[in-house]
Design a protein that fits this description.
With 100 residues, the protein is an alpha+beta fold. The chain has 2 helices and 6 strands, in the order βαββαβββ.
Length: 100
């Protein structure tokens, strides 16, 4: 099975006393979430997710992420091809090196 990976930018409203922390912690608990980062710039959180299909990730964003109180907007970017992963050029999806 080929997993689908995506990066999601989130704009969120910070909460009194906890800032971005409570929302980030809640988002990080979803099994689809591989990593969650507080960012500077145009968006607040950068979330790396995986799913079984494009539809699976789209449903996660629509049903789970975007419905969290304090989430203002999402922008989803699907990863189409890997050129470098884990510091290795030419890495395959499963982490092995390509042989040429």
């Amino acid at each position: 099975m080929n997993e689908v990976h995506a990066v999601i930018e989130l704009k969120i409203t910070p909460q009194r006393e906890s800032g971005f922390g409570k929302i980030a912690e809640r988002i990080s608990r979803f099994e689809q979430v591989e990593a969650c980062f507080l960012m500077s710039g145009a968006y607040d959180l950068l979330v790396f997710v995986k799913g079984d299909s494009l539809q699976d990730v789209a449903e996660f964003v629509a049903q789970d992420l975007s419905t969290i109180e304090g989430v203002l907007s999402t922008a989803t970017h699907f990863m189409l091809k890997t050129y470098k992963a884990g510091g290795v050029l030419g890495a395959l999806e499963d982490g092995r090196m390509e042989v040429s």
